[in-house]
Amino acid sequence: MYYHRIDIPTKAKSIKIVPIGDIHNGNPYSDTAKATKFRDYVLNTPDTYTIDMGDDMDNVVLGSKGEIYDQQQSPHHQFKETIKFWKPVAKAGKLLAIMDDNHTYRSRALADWHIVEDICEKLDARYGGFGCFLDLRIGAQQYTIYCLHGRKGGTTDSGVLNTLVKMNQRVVADIYLRGHNHRKIVHQDEVKKLTKFGLMEHKRSYGVTGSFMSWDNSYAERSEYLISVRGCIKLELFADHWDVHISL
């Protein structure tokens, strides 16, 4: 697991995080135009940040899943487009971390090409690996995020939600985020914890962060997967008091 402490100075009452992932650049059914709109929203909105949740590239290689002859770009050009996509966000200081993922791992297994690590080096961005603990300091408040791209499947929202919530069995955090499942799902629960200040409530927030894949005539339709609502979830973290809002 990777750990990054990030101090976010702000004079606003809160900041927003819009995690962006599962673009699958190179796949003919990737809605890159919609993904770019979300990226530009992050760029143009004050006190708004993002986490790259992985699978920016479709990266179909010899012997892997996927339709290699349908790819719109080679892995090399998908790599270059990914850097171009994220460069202005990284330059603006709004990219909190980049998560590694199963699609780019194909090139690591095939040819020892660590694509996401190379992207992070090109952008001078934080590498999140296959599990990342973000320690955000916003004003006087501290927020902890456990995020990963994910690997476990799930063909129903209830199954995906179950996998998401079970992340709290591995790591204690305020917010749990995962990609991979091409769903937009949010959830919150509350537990009690004993602190030096006495018995307190601990609200935990969970999100499956969305995707940008069209369904018609795609692998998802042929495989009888559910239609995904394209886009991202949104989080609001407050600076003047401790609270998390999460929404679709």
Mean pLDDT: 96
What is the CA-atom radius of gyration, in angstroms? Answer: 18 Å
How would you sum up the major sheet?
Answer: 6 strands, mixed
Helix content: 25-40%
Distance from first to last alpha carbon: 27 Å
Q: Given the helix and strand composition, which structural class is it?
A: alpha/beta
- What CATH architecture label applies? 4-Layer Sandwich
Order of helices and strands: EEHEHEHHEEHEEEHEE
CATH topology, anyone? Answer: Purple Acid Phosphatase, chain A, domain 2
Spans where pLDDT lies below 50 across 5 or more residues: none
The domain tally reads 1
Q: Quickly name the level 1 CATH class.
A: Alpha Beta
Count, helices: 6
Strand order of the largest sheet: 1-5-6-7-9-8
Number of strands: 11
Overall outline: globular
Strand content: 25-35%
Polypeptide structure, described:
- With 248 residues, the chain is α/β, with parallel strands linked by helices.
- The chain has a single domain (2-247), classed as 4-Layer Sandwich (Purple Acid Phosphatase, chain A, domain 2).
- It has six helices and eleven strands.
- It has helices at 32-44, 75-91, 102-111, 115-123, 157-165, 219-222; strands at 2-8, 14-17, 48-52, 95-98, 132-138, 141-148, 175-178, 184-195, 198-209, 234-238, 244-247.
- Helix 1 runs parallel beside helix 2 (75-91) and helix 2 packs parallel to helix 4.
- The two termini are 27 Å apart.
